[in-house]
Amino acid sequence: MSTPQEACHELLGSALILLQESADTALDDSVSSGLRRALDVVKRHYRRLDRVNRLGAVVALAGLGNVGKSTLLNTLLEMDIAPCRNGPCTAVPVEFQRSENLEIVVFRKGDLPWTLPCAEHNELRRHLDWLAQDAPGESHRQIERIVVRSENAHLPPGLVLVDTPGFGSATIDSMDSEAAGGTHDESLLAGLQRAAQVVWVVLAEQGIGQREADFWKRHLSDWCDDLAVTGCEGWSDSELVRFRKRFERLFGRHCPRFHFVSCRDGLGIVDLRHRLQELADQELRSNATVESLVQLARELSGWIKELPLKHRDVWRRDSWLRFRQGPDPYLWKQQLVTLLDVSYGS
Predict the structure, then answer these.
(1) N or C: which end of the chain has fewer CB within 10 A?
(2) Is residue 200 part of a domain?
């Protein structure tokens, strides 16, 4: 029997073929357009699953400098390990992995990895504080990424959490030299290339600016389903709703899931941990993808029922029959067929 991830991949591929062939042969332009919009959603899921298969469960925390990414990571892990200061500090991607060993592995440009064993967490923190900071000098510029390995019950097995440099944060070297205006964006983008999914972090009092929304659309829209809003201490339910309604329009159809969190009083931390567990677990991740497909099928079913009667046979007949008759080890396709079988009946 295929694994949940393999079955999910096959289901997405079958849905892509059904939507593509039906859109290509639709006689009405509005029907073709509607099917292609659904096709774009399924393609997005397909690309993400391919990325997870290639990179594994690597989740990056990304956002502007000084919005609380490192503080959020420390809170999630219940460990004061990621460097935090009153100002942008993380200069290179720092990956946190669960391991029986307590060590730091430093990856330098054109050099072999350097492993630094640590006797206890305070020693690890001191080394990491120096290695990950933004400091002038060739030794820091040669560091590409840092891997931190430790035993932590809040880090699900197989999950890698990545603390990334702040988007738009100026480098120390650029402020101290003629290269003024340089930022950590290159290092950030390099770190994001290693991530299968991204949690975008914003500060509640700052909101989401157009520059951030543009960055999300350009670099993250396919890999980011989660937005963590930090600094929500004391916010009422109505304030949380108002924040979501104000900014969700920036993301269009692919609006991420909002997580309102507070590192001071623990608001939303448990829910965000559960979400990370879902991203780390193959079966939970596949189930979440199927739930998204089922929701899309509900929307398509409602749309088809609103079409004029002569246009309701939206599915290319041979494509529909192949879709129905394909393998369905977890009965996921059966849910979709039940919803989409508007044209031909069961």
Answers:
(1) C
(2) no
Question: Looking at this protein, which amino acid is placed at residue 3?
Answer: T
Find how far residue 105's CA is from the centre of its chain: 24
pLDDT tens string 299-338: 999 999 999 998 999 999 999 999 999 899 999 999 999 9
**Is residue 202 in some structural domain?**
no
Name 92's Cβ contacts closer than 8 Å, sequence gap at least 6.
Answer: 132, 143, 144, 145, 146, 165, 187, 191
- 168 and 75 together in one domain: yes
CA-to-CA dists, residue 88 to 99, 134, 214, 229, 300, angstroms: 28, 8, 21, 18, 45
For 69, list phi and psi in degrees, rounded to 5.
-65, -50
| Cβ neighbours, 10 Å, residue 241 | 11
Q: Could you give the CA distance from residue 270 to residue 260 in angstroms, rounded to a whole number? A: 11
State the residue range of the domain holding 116: 64-194
Alpha carbon distance 91, 252 (integer Å): 31
* Dihedral (Cα; 164, 167, 173, 175), 10-degree rounding: -150
Residue reference for tokens 């009083």? 265
Clarify whether residues 48 and 95 are in a common domain: no
pTM of the predicted model, to two decimals? 0.82
| Domain limit, last residue, from 194, 210, 232 | 194
* CB 15 within 8 Å of CB 49: no
* Cα 37–Cα 41–Cα 47 angle in degrees, nearest 5: 135
For 28-85, what is each residue's pLDDT tens digit?
A: 999 999 999 999 999 999 998 899 888 889 999 999 888 999 899 999 999 888 877 5
Burial 148-180 (b: 16+ CB within 10 A, else e): bbbebeebbeebbbbbbbbbbbbbbbbeeeeee
Q: How many domains does the chain have?
A: 2
Q: How many Å apart are CA 48 and CA 45, to the nearest integer?
A: 5
Indicate whether 84 and 181 sit together in one domain. yes
Detail the DSSP E strand segments found in 24-102. Answer: 58-62, 94-98
Q: Do residue 42 and residue 125 come from a single domain?
A: no
Among 194, 221, 248, identify where a domain stops.
Answer: 194
